[in-house]
Design a protein that fits this description.
The protein has seven helices and ten strands. By secondary structure, the protein is α/β, with parallel strands linked by helices. The chain folds into two domains: about 120 residues, 2-Layer Sandwich (Nucleotidyltransferase, domain 5), CATH 3.30.420.40; about 90 residues, Nucleotidyltransferase, domain 5 (2-Layer Sandwich), CATH 3.30.420. α1 packs parallel to α2 and α4 packs parallel to α5. The longest helix is centred in the middle third of the chain and has 18 residues. The protein is globular. It starts with a strand and ends in an 18-residue tail after the last helix.
């Protein structure tokens, strides 16, 4: 199984190739609002370096959002454009699920965060419930003050947490909030590929024609 993962959900974009033997290529970069011009050249380079062509892929994994309106549409359009002609499987994964994934063994709830611009944040909570890792709080649009209030017990915070947000969360959320280290906060496309592989092994692929971005209404 060879999976290409595409994540253009926010200003941070990523690509990964996952083979049966493991992750063979991965790239994450700060795209700002340049997904349109940066995604395809980087994708073509990754396939070329890996000596792969699109028909050799098994599936496409794509971040569904919430996130940037334009970024999400670009990523989904590229995934569908590659999958449909070659009848490749497609798996869509929520953005904040990818963010929380590396902490799935935590005994404490995990708050996954993404920047939404103008001081706003996208947030959702994941954790163990009945010994199963699952979504606890649906994604919502918020700000750092409201988020700190919603975290009513010990929890990890991870994702797109800049210096100002980190400082505010620590001040407002003490002693409940624990921040993941900056490197571990990164939303990696390799995680997206792993989630997709698990779902594909359980026959959980999506209908490409019916796959749409997840958007959150403004506050």
């Amino acid at each position: 199984m060879m999976i290409l993962a595409i994540d253009t959900a926010t200003q941070y974009a990523g690509l990964a190739l996952l083979s049966p033997d493991g992750l063979i290529a991965e790239e994450t970069w700060y795209a700002d609002r340049n997904h349109t011009v940066e995604l395809l050249p980087r994708l073509e380079r990754m396939l070329r370096v890996a000596q792969l062509q699109v028909p050799q892929l098994t599936a496409l994994a794509v971040a569904l959002g919430p996130g940037s309106f334009t970024g999400l549409r670009i990523g989904l359009a590229v995934a569908k454009g590659l999958a449909l002609p070659y009848k490749l499987a497609v798996v869509g994964v929520p953005t904040l699920e990818i963010t929380a994934y590396p902490l799935r063994d935590s005994q404490q709830p995990v708050w996954a965060i993404a920047q939404a611009g103008r001081g706003r944040l996208l947030a959702a909570s994941y954790g163990l419930k009945k010994n199963k890792w699952q979504l606890l709080v649906e994604p919502f649009l918020t700000d750092v003050e409201e988020l700190a209030q919603k975290i009513n017990g010990p929890a990890w915070c991870t994702g797109e947490i800049d210096q100002e947000t980190a400082k505010s969360l620590q001040q407002l959320g003490q002693p409940r909030v624990q921040l993941v280290s900056p490197a571990k906060r990164l939303r990696r496309p390799g995680y997206l590929a792993e989630i997709a592989r698990t779902r594909l092994e359980a026959d959980g692929q999506d209908d490409p024609d019916a796959l749409v971005p997840i958007y959150i209404s403004s506050i």
